Structure formats: structure tokens, C-alpha cells
């Protein structure tokens, strides 16, 4: 039960603070239970949480039965946490989003919670926190998140652009080689227009990550093989990127290259290793290569991909 208001002599009470403390923190006179499996259930108030478009729809579906209301959500979203769901719900009680010093888990969780509940300010707070966490050492985790498939519990999601197949997106692809083969082909066809796991909030994320990667790669890393050997995690990231994103990094005009020959050597070394991995994985339908053009036009190094061709076998008729 909630504590009594600070003022009991008829003086004015801070209504917003009281609603948050009594209603959200202490769940006084709650009439709604929200259970987002596998997270712990939360006791809430229909009048306030109906400010969420998603919860309004769920409440409207059971309103004919009267309170108490019970809303259950089968949660298939690993990004949603108890803390971030609570932070999102607290905004329905008048509390501002305060991310403090966020972690990647916090940022991802706020985007997930805001997307589920239809709370744009919450989702954008999570996205802003995610952008503030951009760093070279976090790039693998950031790209893995940006390439995830939209969770099944997110309401009213249409297929995202940027995939060669409009019917489905990659199923939770991680850039560690563990993605199932059927999803690896889809993942490899993703480009920077893919809207991510929580469109429209994550729509700019892949393009922003590519731009950050290009700007953050040191000139020595691009020019010197020894520098790449000393940064295996960064090399691993580039080797694991979908082709269109890898191509965008290698061909970017803002990549720190001293010459097009250095760009060519840099891209050729990575492409050779990407090809070796594709062959070992039995993904030989397409092959990547690097060409260096001179003369008229823009010229420079270009990463290309084309259908793999089998070498013709010549048979000599016996005499």
C-alpha cells in the first residue's frame, strides 16, 4: 500500500510526484497486471498505462470484462530487460527517461521497450544513448544489434528495406560465424538501407555505423599489414560484414588511404580471406574480387561480386 500524501491537512500535494510514488513505485490500488515473459510481472493502472498505444489496444480488448485486467505478452525479445521496461512504463506515470551512464544493454533495452509500447521518446532516448556508445571496441556488438531481425512481439512491423528477400529478415544474426546457413545468405545481402530490428527507430543505424567505421579506421591499419595483424578483432569485424557494407567501407572516399594502390592492397587482402571462409563454409555461389581501374572516369579500387564460374575442363579424345 502507498504511503499517505506528505500533506494531510488539506494543503496542495505534488500530484505528479504522488502518482509516480504511490502508483508506480508502490503499485497502490493497481488494477492491471502486465506479464511480459520471462520478465517478472508488474502491477499497474489501466488509466495511466493506456497512454501507450500498444497497451491501450490490449486493454480495449479486455475492457468488457472490467477490472482487474491481465495482459500477457510472449516475449521473444532478448533485448528487453526488467530495468528498461520499467523505465519505459515509468514515463506513463510522468517520469522522464533518465539513462544516466548507459550500457549497450540499457540502450538496446530502451529501444526495444519504446518500440513495443509505441513510446517514441523512450525509443529515441535509447537510440541516442546507443549513438553515444560508438567506439571501435564496441563495433562488433553494435553491428550485430543493427543486423538483428525484428522481434515477433513488436506490433505492426512491415518488412524492412535493404534485404533482397522482402519476406523475412535475418534471424538474430551475430557476426561470429554461428548464423544458420539459411540465414547467412540473407544476411550477406543486407545493405545500409536495412531498417534494423526496431524500425523506424533503428533505420539510420547501419549507415551511421558504416560511416563511423570508415572514420575510425587508422591510416596505419589500412596501409600496413602489421597494423592489421595487431588488431585481429577489427579485422574479424570487416571479414564478417555483409558484402554491401564491406564494399562501402573499402570504397569510401573518406577512408584514410594514402593512395588507391594502398586501398587496393587493403581490400584485396581482406577479400582473399573472405573468399577462403566462404569456400570452407560451402558458400561458393558468388565470388568477390577487387579491381583497380586507371584512366578516364573516377578510377580507383572497386570491390565487386559476381556469380562464381567453374573452370572448363578440356577433354582430349584418345587416338
Describe the structure.
- The chain is mainly alpha-helical.
- The protein has a domain at 1-133: 2-Layer Sandwich (Potassium Channel Kv1.1, Chain A), CATH 3.30.710.
- Helix content is 43%, strand content 10%.
- The chain contains 14 helices and five strands.
- It has helices spanning 15-25, 46-49, 53-62, 82-90, 104-117, 120-132, 139-146, 181-188, 205-216, 219-223, 225-229, 232-240, 243-251, 260-280, and strands spanning 32-37, 42-44, 69-74, 286-293, 300-307.
- The strands form two sheets. The chain has a three-stranded mixed β-sheet. A two-stranded antiparallel ribbon has the order 4-5.
- A hairpin with a 6-residue loop joins strand 4 (286-293) and strand 5.
- Helix 5 (104-117) packs antiparallel against helix 6 (120-132) and helix 12 packs across helix 14 (260-280).
- The chain starts with 14 loop residues before the first helix and ends in a 12-residue tail after the last strand.
- 31% of the residues are buried.
Amino acid at each position: 500500500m502507498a504511503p499517505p500524501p506528505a500533506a494531510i491537512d488539506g494543503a496542495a500535494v505534488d500530484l505528479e510526484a504522488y502518482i509516480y510514488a504511490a502508483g508506480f513505485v508502490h503499485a497502490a490500488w493497481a488494477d492491471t497486471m502486465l506479464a511480459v515473459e520471462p520478465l517478472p510481472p508488474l502491477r499497474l493502472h489501466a488509466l495511466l498505462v493506456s497512454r501507450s498505444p500498444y497497451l491501450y489496444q490490449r486493454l480495449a480488448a479486455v475492457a468488457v470484462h472490467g477490472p482487474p485486467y491481465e495482459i500477457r505478452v510472449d516475449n521473444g525479445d532478448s533485448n528487453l530487460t526488467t530495468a528498461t521496461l520499467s523505465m519505459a512504463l515509468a514515463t506513463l506515470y510522468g517520469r522522464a527517461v533518465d539513462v544516466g551512464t548507459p550500457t549497450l544493454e540499457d540502450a538496446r533495452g530502451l529501444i526495444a521497450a519504446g518500440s513495443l509500447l509505441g513510446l517514441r521518446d523512450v525509443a529515441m532516448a535509447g537510440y541516442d544513448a546507443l549513438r553515444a556508445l560508438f567506439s571501435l571496441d564496441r563495433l562488433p556488438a553494435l553491428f550485430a544489434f543493427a543486423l538483428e531481425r525484428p522481434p515477433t512481439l513488436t506490433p505492426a512491423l512491415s518488412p524492412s528495406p535493404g534485404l533482397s528477400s522482402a519476406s523475412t529478415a535475418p534471424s538474430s544474426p551475430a557476426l561470429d560465424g554461428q548464423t544458420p546457413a539459411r540465414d547467412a545468405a540473407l544476411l550477406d545481402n543486407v545493405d545500409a538501407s536495412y531498417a534494423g530490428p526496431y524500425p523506424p527507430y533503428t533505420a539510420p543505424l547501419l549507415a551511421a555505423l558504416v560511416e563511423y567505421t570508415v572514420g575510425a579506421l587508422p591510416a596505419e591499419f589500412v596501409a600496413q599489414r602489421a597494423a592489421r595483424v595487431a588488431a585481429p578483432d577489427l579485422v574479424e569485424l570487416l571479414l564478417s560484414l555483409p558484402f554491401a557494407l564491406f564494399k562501402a567501407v573499402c570504397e569510401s572516399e573518406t577512408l584514410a588511404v594514402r593512395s588507391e594502390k594502398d586501398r587496393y592492397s587493403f581490400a584485396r587482402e581482406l577479400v582473399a580471406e573472405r573468399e577462403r571462409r566462404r569456400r570452407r563454409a560451402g558458400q561458393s555461389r558468388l565470388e568477390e574480387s577487387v579491381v583497380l581501374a586507371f584512366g578516364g572516369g573516377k578510377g580507383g579500387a572497386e570491390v565487386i561480386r559476381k556469380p562464381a564460374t567453374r573452370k572448363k575442363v578440356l577433354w582430349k579424345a584418345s587416338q
